[in-house]
Amino acid sequence: MRSLGILSVAVLVSCVEYELEGPGRVDVNRPDTDTVSDPPIDTEIPDTENNEPDPPNPDPPINTDPPTDVDPPSEHIDNCPDGATATLAAGVYVTSWDRTQIPGSIEAETGGWYHLYDYALSESGSSQPNESGYLRSPNGTNPDGQPHWGNCGSDWIQPDQDNSGPPPAGLRAYLGTFWLDEGTNAFTFYHYCPLYRAGQCGEFHNTGFGDGTCFTDNWNSVHFDGHGICIVLASP
Fold it and tell me: What are the structural domains, with CATH classification, of the chain?
C-alpha cells in the first residue's frame, strides 16, 4: 500500500508540470508560436470637410506706370502697326460755338498707355482755318482723362492740318497718349475755340484766313470719325 501512494504523488507532479497533449491542450512551458501580431491601427482621420481645390493664383496687377519716354512720340505716322487699329462706336464732330463737346467710346484689347492717332480732324481747307480739337478719356485708372503729355496745359491739341492743302493720303496725326482700360473706354471730344476765347493757348489760333477766327460764326467743324484710328502701345 505504501508503494501505491508514492505512485499517486508522482503522477500528480507530472500533471502539474505538463498539460496532457490533445485537442485544446498546449504545453504550458513551450513558447506560443501560433500567435501573430496584429498590424498597427491607423488612427489618422481623413479630412472630409475641405475637399475643394486650391484657388488659382490671382492675376498680377496691371502696370499703370506712365511711359518712360521723355518726349511725346512723332506727331505723324504713315502706317499703323499690325494689331493697333481700332474703331469708334460712332463718328463724332464738334463746332466752334453750338456743339463744342460730345461723348464717344473706343475699345482697347488690354489696359495700358496708348499713343492715339487718326486721320486729320480737319477737312475743309482754309475756309475753316481753326478746325482744331482735343480729347479726354476718363476711367478708373486715370479719372481726369487727360493725356500723359500736353501742349495746351494738360491737354493735347491737334491743330488744323489742312490750311495749306490736304495732308498726304494715309497720314495719321497724333491726338495724345492716353491710359485706356481693357474693353470700352468713354471719351469726350472738345473743340479748341472755347479754350482760345477763354484766353488759353493762343499759339494754335489761325487769324490769316478771313472770317475763320474763333470769334466769328464760322463753324470750323472738327470731325473725329475714327476711320483711320490707330492706338500704339507706349513703351513701359
Answer: 76-233 (2.60.120)
Q: Looking at the whole model, is its pTM more than 0.90?
A: no
Question: 33 exposed, middle or buried (CB, 10 Å; 0-12, 13-18, 19+)?
Answer: exposed
Digit-by-digit pLDDT tens for the chain (236 residues) are 444 444 343 444 444 444 444 454 445 455 555 555 566 665 666 555 666 666 666 555 567 888 888 899 999 999 999 889 887 877 899 999 999 999 999 989 999 999 999 999 999 999 999 999 999 999 999 999 999 999 999 999 999 999 999 988 889 999 999 999 999 999 999 999 999 999 999 999 999 888 999 999 999 999 998 888 999 999 87
Classify strands 76-77 and 101-108 as parallel, antiparallel or unpaired: unpaired
CA distances to 39, 151, 155 from 200, rounded to whole Å, are: 92, 11, 11
Three-state DSSP class for residue 113 = strand
H or E, element range at 190: strand 183-191
Residue 123: exposed, middle, or buried by beta-carbon count in 10 A (0-12, 13-18, 19+)? middle
Q: Is 102 helix (H, G, I), strand (E, B) or coil?
A: strand
Side-chain-side CA neighbours of residue 69 (13 Å): 14
Q: Which of 166, 92, 182 is nearest to 135 (CA)?
A: 92
CA atoms of 72 and 93, how far apart (whole Å) = 25
CA 62 from chain centre, in angstroms, equals 6
Helix (H) or strand (E) holding 194, with range, is helix 193-197
Query: DSSP for 45-62?
Result: PP--S--PPPPPPPPPPP
